[in-house]
Each structure stands twice: as C-alpha cells, then as structure tokens.
Specification:
Elements lengths: L2 E7 L3 E8 L6 E2 L5 H14 L2 E8 L6 H21 L6 E8 L2 E8 L5 E5 L6 E2 L2 E2 L2 H13 L2 E8 L3 H19 L14
Helix pairs in contact: 1-4, 2-3
Length: 191
Amino acid sequence: MRNAFIERKTKETDISINLNVDGTGKFNLNTGIGFFDHMLSSFAMHGGFDLLGHVKGDLEVDQHHTVEDTAIVLGQAFNKIISSDKNIKRFGSSYIPMDEALSFAAVDISGRPFIVYDCPIKEIKTGDMDTELFKEFFRAFAFNAGITLHTKMVYGENGHHMIEALFKAVARALKDALQPNDGILSTKGVL
C-alpha cells in the first residue's frame, strides 16, 4: 500500500493529511470551505485516493492560506509516495465531461514541476469559494508533488460543473500515471 502522512503548522494554518493512493476514495477532511471540500472529495473518489486528516486555517482573514497550504501538504504527500515508487506508468491524461462542461488534465510524474493552467472561469465565486484560488491550488500542488500538470477547461458555462470536471480529470490522470510499470519509464534511467 502506497501512503504518506504529512503535517504542516504555520502561524496561518495547521494541516495534517494522510494519503493512500491505493485506496477506495475515502474522504474525511474539513477545510471550513464547503465548495473546496466538495472538490477534494470528488478528487479522492475519482482517483481512488483515501484522503483523511484535518485542516485549520485563518479563514477570518480569507481562504487563500487554507487553500494554498492544503495544496502544499497534499502535494508533499504525493511526492513522498512518488519518491518511494519509481516503477509507475508516469504519464496520465483524462477528459471529464460534466453536463455542458468538459475539462482536460495531463500529468507527467517526472520530478520536474511545471504547470499550465488554461482554465478561465467567469464567476468570481463558486459556492463559497473564490475561483481565483483554483489556480493557486493546482500550482502549489504540482510544484510540491514534483509533477508536470497541464489543465484546460475545454468549454462550459456553469463554474461549478467546470471546476468539478477539472478536479475529476486531474484525479483520473494521476490515477493512470501512478499505475505500476515494469521498470523506470525514462531513457535516462531515472525520474
């Protein structure tokens, strides 16, 4: 079983996450941001990741620290798992439709962090969450996981549908990339 436990305590947040990438989609994490919890729950379910822990952030200031630090911890948990298991497919991609929306994600588990985030959302908020924070989330996640992540909102009208499809697409792409492979998939011999 591939799992990791990461804690992060700052003056702004107190976060611990236990991640199992070979799970069943169990989710027990309350960030205090309802829509964010819904997205993380979808991420866990569609990736087959068990995602358990606690998140306490300075929501009296705003949501930024909570969202970014949750992404940092989640990325570090993925990185810890990836670092201990290099015999993986490495690449994964997924298109996910949700009603009128279609989102795409591609991932390379390479140890070279990079992100392309082509996801314009016209709404300023979705549910109780500032939509500008999704870019911050995926950037912090990709850089702390040590992965290359490309995301694209292909089309859509409803911000909720677009963002949820994106979280599911990233989860499915990661799930595919983390599948076992016979040896290291690199001409260099290392990731």
